[in-house]
Each structure stands twice: as structure tokens, then as C-alpha cells.
Amino acid sequence: MKSTYFKANFNIARKSKKNILLMGALIVFMVFFVLLVGNQNLGDNYRQWQSYYDSLEINISYFNGNLLRKQKYKQTYDNLNAQEGCIASLQNGEVLESPQTYLESSLNLFQTMLDGYQNNYLGASTLNVPPKYQLRQGLVTYKYLYRHHIPPAMSSKVSVTYLIYIVNFIAVLIFFYILLIANDVWMVKLDHETVLRNIPYRVEDEVKGKTMINLVLTLIPLIIGLIGAYLFAGLLNGFRSLNYPNVFYFNKIRAIPIWLDCLIFLFYTAVLVVFVTSLTLLLNQLTKNVYLSTFIGIALYVLSYLPSKLLKAITWLPSVYLNVNDVLNGTVASKTGFAGLNFATAAVILLIWSLVCVVWFRYLVNKKGAAR
To answer: Which spans are transmembrane here (predicted)?
Structure first.
């Protein structure tokens, strides 16, 4: 790849007002969103469990004497009452700032909620119980804390829990950031023909150069944002160890230290940049329109929210793997029923589709050049 050609493209990209605005917005959001988290008590476990507690009380009231004479209904009734006691103990631990009580109650609660699925909560028709895979995610997190003797944080605003909160949040939306960075990746060349006209290049130069530029424009702001989020939240609300766990899926749901989770998140994001850059190069060439390219990219992402049965049928498409959070925490594997759909498998599928897009793009460009 010609260094002169790369520098010319990089100068165009780094001076783009759109790119400067996007990078600045990403960093500012990641660092300062903790102020809203603290002010609005986002991720507050007390409020979360209070809502579920209310649902428990309503469903417990459905069980009358006739139902309780049947063992299968009594099993549900006893389970709901046990959950009610766990939540009361958990909330007491949070209010009294007793990490040990909070941890033990959380472990008991998640296990009891999973036990309730043994008879599928028969009789509790309106109970808003989370799906089993989400309960397992919570259970492995608290087991990790218990096993490693790490006191649980009871809010999302201290350094490490805010870092976990923002990583999980950004992982859902990072595709849109990359798409907006890359949506004019080929159109920029057409808009700056006078700058690049006399610089010889190959299609391979275009693909490699644009990919490298988009990697820089994505990963550098992300790294700055992650470090800034941890430090700013720590200065405001106190620091906690980066060994605090986050949910992760490989061949089963487990918990890993957040520092390792951040590294895997950055790696997978880099793969996503490669795919999105390849996709937008192709879409720009096909549509000759930035907005249409962006719309198609968003449509691909929306497919990741299809019902489980439909999602299972399109696991060969890249759409399933564009929500980074769902890939890393095992939601994709759970919804599709394919245990092998972890971040490594998803990365391979995205890279294969990247190659398909690049080959198609190269064919179209060479065909256009030959026609001239």
C-alpha cells in the first residue's frame, strides 16, 4: 500500500467534521454518562427488585385454598414465597450496606428463580420472571464474587461497575458508531478526486487503507473513553478492582474479570470494523448514495432482533452478530440454540462476509474501470 495514498486518505478522514464530532461525542458520552447514572439511579438493583417484588405479591395472591391442595401448584407457591424472602433480605443488605448479606441473598434468589422453572411457574401466569439464560448470567456473576471473595458493589456508579455498565451499553450501539464513521468510505474518494487523481493505487490499497483508518477512528476513542470512564467514576464515587466480573460466554455462560472483558470487546469491535468497512465500500459502489448505504446497514442490524425461531434460520448471515453485547454475553447462543455461537465463531463469520463484500466490491470497481 502506497504510504502517500494512505496519508492522503487519512488526512481527509481525520479532518472530517463528521468524524471529529462522532469521536468527541463517543468519548464525552462514555466518560460523563456516569453523572446521569448516579443522578437517576440507573442500574439500581433496589429499584429493579422492587418492581419484581410487586409482581411476586400479585401472583402469590392468585393461589387460593383449592389450588394449594394440588402439589404442582403448591410447588410454585412455595417458590414464590421463598423468592419474596430472598428479595427482602437482598434489599436489607443494600439499605444497610452489608455486602455479605447482599451477596448471599443474591445467590439464593437467582438459584430459587431458576428452580421455579422446574414446573414452569405453573399458576403464576402474570409473573414477569426473566428468561433462564439471564438468570444464569446473574448467578455466575455472584458465584464468581463469592468464590474470589470480592465484595459486591450495590450500585452502577463506582469505578468498576460503571465501567461494566458502559461497556455493556456501548456494546449494543457500537455498530451504529462504526456505520456512521464508515458510511461514506468510498464516497469520500469521489468527492476528493482532485486530491487523489494523480496518486496511483489499487483496489487492495483502498480496502486496506480505509480499514486501517476506521480502526484508528474507532478503537482510539473507545480506549480513551473506557479509561476515562473508569477514572472519572472512580474520582466521583470510589475505585474498585478491575478483577470485578462481567458475564461472558464461550462454550458456557461464565464470569470473567472486566479488564479481560474489555480486551475481548475491543478485539471483537476491531473485527466488526473490518466487516462494516467492507460492507460500506460495497454499498457505496452499488448505491452511490450515503443515506441508502446507511439505511441498508441499519436494516441488517434490526434483523438481529427477530424472534428466536427466525433468528435460528439466519445464523449464517452477519446480522445475528452485529449486537456485540448479545454475542459476548451468550444471548445469541441462547436464542438460536446453537452453543457454538460464541465471539470466536461470530468473528470468523463476519470475516468471511467481509471477504465476500471485498471480492464483490473489487469486481464492480474493475468492471467499471474496464468499461471506461
So the answer is: 20-38, 162-182, 212-236, 256-283, 290-308, 343-365
